[in-house]
Amino acid sequence: MLGARGFVGGHTVACLRALPGVRVLVGGRAAGNDLCADLGSVPVPVLASAVRELAVDAVVNCAGAVGGDPTALAEANARGPAVLCAALALAAPGVRLVHLGSAAEYGAGPEGVALSESAPVCPVGVYGATKLAGTLTVVAAPLDAVVLRVFNPVGPGAPAAGLPGRLAAELRRQGRDGTVRVGDLSAYRDFVDVRDVARAAVLAVTAPGTLPRLVNVAAGRAVPVRELVRQLASAAGFRGALEESGAVSARSGGVGWQRADITLAARALGWRPRIPLTESVRDLWCASAPRVARGVS
């Protein structure tokens, strides 16, 4: 399991560890991991040797970067999957690789149209372009591999790098009153609970037979970002003012509307989203409370 310390990776590790008889090995840059390696810089032979020694049955790659300069994004999102695929082809070509892609690879979708896995890809920024490069590498690799193209994950533990986590932190700072400034909220996004994403990854690991190379993981609904903000403010009991600045995120600017077609996920994995957005937002808010406030010393 790579990227276990991240938002999606943490939930995926928890799901994998809940499987009976499964031992989960964790890889990443931090010392003390079962596999200590930085996919952005590790040589292929070194990684192949480490993978061979661990004798894994499957690999889940949740590692990646959502921010940073173009070099950092390319190292994490493009080079990382390429090195991993090359190492697996050398050391363990029979293991299954489950790699997490991103809806940013599609770019803007036509309003009212659900994006299937065969839809054209046209990322509008460096993040989406580097994620697409990683996906193309995995899809073309001579491996038992599947890319789960994840749309907008939300839920407990959402990081400040994205709007839901950042807004939850700001609402905590402001209390019930005050003014919270947000950017442009006019876009529509397909929000999916992070725990549903983790469950899809586990199903992809354990599914028998050959899987499609690319599978959308989303809720299958286009929701106004403004609605998510409203729900989060409501969960927080916020009575103050939300001021829209009109500023557009560098990562998602130019993408006004997205919704996924999730038919293939149901057919290939037996997966459907279970957790509604209201529950995702409520749990995000509860999980954002300081540990002391939740009675943990």
From TrEMBL:
<dbReference type="InterPro" id="IPR036291">
    <property type="entry name" value="NAD(P)-bd_dom_sf"/>
</dbReference>
<feature type="domain" description="NAD-dependent epimerase/dehydratase">
    <location>
        <begin position="2"/>
        <end position="218"/>
    </location>
</feature>
<dbReference type="Pfam" id="PF01370">
    <property type="entry name" value="Epimerase"/>
</dbReference>
<dbReference type="InterPro" id="IPR001509">
    <property type="entry name" value="Epimerase_deHydtase"/>
</dbReference>
<protein>
    <submittedName>
        <fullName>NDP-hexose 4-ketoreductase</fullName>
    </submittedName>
</protein>
<dbReference type="InterPro" id="IPR050177">
    <property type="entry name" value="Lipid_A_modif_metabolic_enz"/>
</dbReference>
